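DOMAIN: structural biology
WANTED: fold as tokens
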Amino acid sequence: MVKIMEIEIEIVGKGKATVKLDDRNPETAKKIYEILPVPGDANIYLEEVYFRIPAELNYENPSGSTEKGDISYWPPGQAFCIFYGDSQPYSEVNNFGKITENLEVLKTCEDGDEIIIRKK
């Protein structure tokens, strides 16, 4: 039986969202899960929150598109990306999870907010 990997994204002082990791990019999901917890400072690009994480991963099954709630890794910037609206990535990303609870909290995130990603 495959273990379901869930993570929590906390925007400190604002709230938390739950993410279920999936198999679109299984090695990316596994490697990021293994390094958690990871803190970061939010950057906002359109309807996306992103920040650099200590992971040097390559493209696995890259995609030039995302859906609302997708969690992705952007190899050129070593960035953890959270797509909370209809915007699309700047360039291809490894999609590896989906927000399952409290997507709305991401809309409150501002540049510089502290974020913590941890295993749930």
The chain has a mean pLDDT of 95. Helices lie at 26-35. DSSP finds one helix and nine strands in the chain. The CA atoms of residues 3 and 68 lie 24 Å apart.
